[in-house]
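Class, study these two lines:
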Amino acid sequence: MRTNNRSSQGSLRDRFKFLRMREEAGITMGDETNSDGSPSTAPPILHARSSSRIGSPTGLSDDEPGSPPALQKQPTINPKLAPGTASGFAAGPAGDAAEPVDWDLWQSVVNEGPAAIARTSSEELNRAIANGIPQVIRGVIWQVLAQSKNEELEIMYRELVARGTDKEQMSVKPANLSNGQTSGNGKESVASSSSSVHSDYSSPATTTTSTNAPLPSPSVTSDSSEDPAKAQARIAAERKQSVAAISKLEKVIKRDLGARTSYSKYVMAAGLQDGLFGICKAYALYDDAVGYAQGMNFIAMPLLFNMPEEEAFSLFVTLMNKYHLRDLFVHDMAGLHLHLYQFERLLEDFEPALYCHLRRREVKPQLYATQWFLTLFAYRFPLQLVLRIYDLILSEGLESAILKFGIVLMQKNAEALLGMKDMSTLTTFLKERLFDVYIDKAPSANSILENGFFGSTAGVDKEVYRADVLVRDATSVKVTPEMLKQYTAEWKEQQRIEKDRETELHGLKDKVTSLEHKVRSLEHRTEQSDMEHVQVASELIKTKVENENFAEENEILRTKVEELQKIVDTQPAEVEARLKNEMETVMQKNIVVHNENRNLEESMAEMEKELVAVKMQWATVSP
């Protein structure tokens, strides 16, 4: 990893040396080529000679291999181009000469790093960045300031761009034929190391490789016990699903490119659409938690104007992670809401009258400042200003730079905004005419050249802007880290209170729902009670009727009982007399029976005597 970083840093140093030598020697290049004669990967540049700012962004190019550069090569002037365009510079008005480039300072920044220079020459470095990074070395300096140069990310970029295309299939098939291995192992190592490029800001979405690696061959992923035919079918289905998802993503990205971007008027943009598409697609696959958002193309295009697309992708990843631009695109967009709150608090502190004026008319920062943060002012505003804003963002950080530019624009337009009373007028002005205050009424030759450097289908931008004044004004705004920390703490406290309120509200809603269920249950029980009451009343009436019937029957029975009682009262004497007669009859019969029994007993005694006598006779007779 350290070897790759050193080689990347060395590549930037070599490129800077080449660009410096070319600029100091007064060489102007045409279409750039690599040392081997092949076309350069850097975007095509419309060249102009200037002693300070304008030239090729980053591309390393030579004349024919082995031949020294032509030191006296003169630029070709096209008389049909409007004054101020890159090749029409000679036709532009005369003006103040540009400030000389401090090549030694920028050389030290590239060789030693911005942190080392900031410790020894902080004011000098800040002043140089505020004056504008020379266009010829802007791409190199951007990468040095952000420390974004990463060869592994550049390799990964090419692999991600090829995802879902014929190139990926061609790279996977030969790997499948050799020892049953795929190129996924190599890609895994790339993704693994890329996640550690900036361990302080890497995220789970950028460290996983399961979604970024191509589908492996059946020999690698299928279980040994799985049927090969089923495994092949499963992998084919997964690959088809992945290709379909990538195809859908590509359609969404292509729909947002082209004439829909604010850069379509520039000649250079016509040759960078493929690179812009590649960066948007590659990052959507690289960070699936964020995916693709419309503002990304505005952020990536200024990078492509200044460096090859592989390096632009690496810098784009750095912006998203190290500079916390990613927080603006995640699902809840917490970073965007934080920056909008910080901007509103700064506006309240620096311009309280304007803050109250906009607040009374319900013109909140969400209506006009959202695109500032999501596109870094690139969605509508002039390119020459956007590049200067990028200079400050990459040197000071996203949060501080964007807030400074936003506040200074509001300050410079405060008088005009205070004179507007209509909400729609205020919103339109804030979205479209905020930079008009920096229009240069009498532009110098150098400012015209800088404005028209990238070329335009209509010549140049309609207006030339005082970019230096804007940057100086922005850097003069005193936005301290302590202020931002305080606003961040306030916002977090508000979020906590709001979250607690939402939690409480959710709890109250749950209670209301529970009470509603209880009310419905009580209503149902009341209905049941009413029905039971009706039933009880009906039964009560029925019981009363039955009781009346029972009363009548009871009266009848009582009469019968009285009659029976009378009968019972008259019968004892009759029963006693009858019983006496019967007892006398029984006693007489008993006497008769007793007499008969006595006679029988006497007869039995005589018979026993006769039996004894017979037995004795028998005994005497028998021998």
